[in-house]
Amino acid sequence: MNTVTKVIIGIIVVFFIAKTCGRSGSSSSSSVAETWQKSPVDNLIKELNNEQNFSIILFDMDANEGSDNYRHQYQVIIQRPDTVVEQKTTWKNVSEPFFSQNLNNMGMEIASKKDGVVTKQAVPAGYNHYVGNEKYGRWENRGGSSFWAFYGQYAFMSHMFNMGSYRRSYWDDYRGGGYYGSSRGYYGPRGSSPVYGTKSYTSSGSGSNSKWGSKPSTFKDKVRSRVSRSSSSSSARSSSKTTRSSSRYRTSSTRSRSGGFGK
After folding, report:
1. Which helix (H) or strand (E) segment is 238 a member of?
2. 220 pLDDT exceeds 70?
3. The whole model's pTM is what?
């Protein structure tokens, strides 16, 4: 075999390997695209890009029985130097995994931006910006325990957050227990029943009159069961795809090394 023939064969082998790897990469990218999509919260964060401080609260949620139609409504609170702006969004369609992920987060802040830094975390509304901030209120002793109280001009914020009372001990637990600044949700002290979240929010105040709060328990249980099963199946399929994808890459990599081309 002469030199020219060897060169031609080498080029053909390199071309074949490049096409094979390209198909594998494209298939993997397609699988990722199918399992992930931007949520309305991601879009809101993008729309609020010019704001330095804001909170996005899951204000209400809804689902249709027997169908994959899930919706959220959000409360957006923007902190400005001299005022606080509040607005509610229209209803937004959300994916089943995102709905499942936030089933226990109604009434909670699920994303925020503080001093230009975005955090996605489920925490009691007001925890990151207003509770503990002496510009808006102070801690008061009531019956031997300390609770947060807004100043008169900010008293509306207590209603805006559908807040019964915020204990100092809970807030201290959040700030010092490894939750603050992380992605771990905070629903109250460890070892106790959830103090914050969907169940407590829909039990009183404006939350009880919400779409989700007004649904019968049987309906909520059916939806929870359905999205829980679906999420488990999706996780299993995702894990299986990842394993198969990794196997294809290992096989492709082995072929490349043995052929001596495409390294």
Report:
1. helix 217-259
2. yes
3. 0.75
